[in-house]
Amino acid sequence: MVSKKSIGLWLDYNKAFIVSIINGKESVLFIKSNVIGRYRLYGGSRGHTPFGAQDVSCERKIIERRKKQLQQYYEMIITFIQDARQIYIFGPGEAKKELKNKMNQSKELYNKIVGIETVDKMTKRQIATKVRQFFSKSIKTN
């Protein structure tokens, strides 16, 4: 018997909830990202103007570190969802679009995406319910 694995994924930059439905049985996995929001890099220098910025740090380091952390976060998520038959992605902000772009690099993953939607923050129970409802609708229409 071939298992039918459907995955619903709610994510933002801080965390992801992966709801797997395999042959009608549901499980939820939580992934916390290591992406650091705003922080100060040490080692900057004092500005040269008397009333200017007191500390000038290299913003490029901050941006590159954040990019690297986001790529590692997306790769971790992809390892958990790559064996699904269909993937539904939803959540607030831009993280879902960035993950989709990362998944577009692989034709296998790109073809598995059945929906992407912007929603607000949700509880674990609300996420699981939304995934169940989404896949029950898609089963009825097929």
C-alpha end-to-end distance? 20 Å
The proportion of strand residues reads 15-25%
Regions with little confidence, pLDDT below 50 for 5+ residues: none
Mean pLDDT: 85
CATH-level-2 architecture: 2-Layer Sandwich
Radius of gyration: 19 Å
CATH class: Alpha Beta
Fraction of helical residues: 25-40%
Q: Mind describing the biggest β-sheet?
A: 5 strands, mixed
What overall form do the CA principal axes indicate?
Answer: elongated
Structural class: alpha/beta
Query: Strands of the largest sheet, in order across it?
Result: 3-2-1-4-5
CATH fold node name = Nucleotidyltransferase, domain 5
- Number of helical stretches of at least 4 residues: 4
Offer a few descriptive terms:
alpha/beta, five-stranded mixed β-sheet, 25% strand, elongated
Task: Give structural notes.
The chain is α/β, with parallel strands linked by helices and 142 residues long. The chain is 38% helix and 25% strand. The chain has a single domain, classed as eRF1 domain 2 (Nucleotidyltransferase, domain 5, 2-Layer Sandwich), CATH 3.30.420. A five-stranded mixed beta sheet has the order 3-2-1-4-5, with helices on both faces. Strand 1 (5-11) and strand 2 (15-22) form a beta hairpin. Helix 1 packs across helix 2 (95-103). The radius of gyration is 19 Å and the shape is elongated. 20% of the residues are buried. The model has no long low-confidence stretch (mean pLDDT 85).
